[in-house]
Design brief:
Layout: E1 2-3, E2 9-10, E3 24-27, E4 34-37, H1 43-48
Antiparallel strand pairs: 1-2, 3-4
């Protein structure tokens, strides 16, 4: 998955293994608890939080380049 600074993303998944229809879970700082995020809503947050919905050894998100002021989730 390549995510451009403008939020556009390209997913190289010819076998359809990445579950893009699933929402990831992220902390909700306003209401507390967790809130779902779709890949179309925020691709970067979605990719950083795939571990909340994947339980497999085959798909592992890897952060290649990040804004120096931002820490990985």
């Amino acid at each position: 998955m390549v995510i451009e600074p403008d939020g556009h993303y390209v997913l190289d998944d010819p076998q359809g293994l990445v579950p893009t229809d699933l929402h990831v879970l992220v902390p909700d700082e306003v209401a507390g608890g967790l809130r779902p995020v779709a890949v179309t809503e925020d691709p970067e947050t979605w990719a950083r939080n795939l571990h909340t919905v994947l339980r497999t050894g085959y798909l592992v998100p890897v952060l290649l380049d990040a804004d120096p002021g931002q820490t990985p989730a």
